[in-house]
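DM from R.C. (forwarded with permission)

"hey, sorry to bug you on a friday — could you get me a structure for this? deadline for the figure draft is monday and I only need the backbone to look sensible"
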Amino acid sequence: MKEWLKRLGILLVAIFLLAYVGYQIFQVLYSNVTVETVSAYSVYDTVETQAIAIRNETLVEADVGDNYLFYTLDNGNRVSKNGEVAALYSDEEAAGLQQQLGVLDEEIAYLESAQALTSGNYAGLEAIEQQLAMKMQEITVHVNGQATGELRRLRAQLLTLMNKRQVIVGAVSGFEDKLAGLYAEREALSSRVSDAIGTVRAPVSGYFIDRTDGFETYFTVSDRDMAALTAEEIQEALTAAPPKTDGCVGKISADYYWYLACSIDSQKAASLEVGDSLKVRLPFVTAEIVPTKVLAVNQGENNQSALILKCSLMSEELSDIRLESVQLLLEQFSGLRLPDKALHFDKDNRAGAYVRMGTTVTFRYVDVLYHNEKDKYSICAIPDAGDKTYVQLYDDVIVEGKDLYDGKVVQS
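My reply, with the result:
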């Protein structure tokens, strides 16, 4: 009986040892890991804040009375002194007919632009494709920002680009029939349009905006005055509600330059100097990045500094912004993008990652330039090509795996 128990004990121990050794061999030969290929990436250190747009603006005054106003100039368009910005009509129907005529003229102009292209002109196709992508992004920005007033214009521009693409790739031969119908419709409509009973003209030359908000006379606008703004004054302006001036139908932004003023954390502001170039995003206005120059950085109270930026880019979207959410793109970091799950630290606390090279795990170092806490990734410096001690572009870094160590064998 004892001999039988002894043999059973030996058998169980042998089975356990065989299972353990088999498991270790399996771990060595068939260890599974999940990898991610390292790619090049660029990101900005971004500060989000509220800003106020400040321009040298002159009010456009007009005695509209009981008449109907029809704007003959789009926002952001330049006008000369005494140039027409609007027309007056005696009744609503006349103003409506004039508006319909303007829409028809736009559509005809867009189609004529597409008609001028020739089939097979593939040299311009890439540019058209890029413009289509940008226009779709711009439409998305306006929809998400609820700025639906510009959607009719954006839709027309998108259709024009699509029509141009159709002509180039040969999907259509032209728009003669469509244009003929529009010409006939315009001629019929023109016969019903009555003459305007008056016009509204620009008091000065500049960029026209058809809305007023009371801020036109809030600031004294010059480089010197803007550079003297404090963080407290900017915060006060952001919450102000100045009264609108009666009898005004728009305004003229007279200068080529305009300003963005905001308040930011003084520690972030310390990295900026007067004259620095700074890129700005206005995510609810346009997909375009706005280039600016730092006009002033003024230390304020409560660890806040006034940042005043000078801008020269003008467009229909930018022409009438006032209080806007902005993203200040303080510094650009370019390098290798590694997820946080791939980063490890050696005994000397140096950052690195385990790289799968065939079936072998190798630990390689990284120099972290920037860490994104929200999205859990880091941008690391690109090392010299061929430096096998550092993670290289297109290496497969391990993001999931157990008991990793240098030299470990894993599945490829």
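R.C.: lifesaver. The longest strand covers residues 323-339.
me: no worries. Helices lie at 2-30, 92-115, 125-144, 151-169, 176-190, 223-227, 231-238, 266-269.
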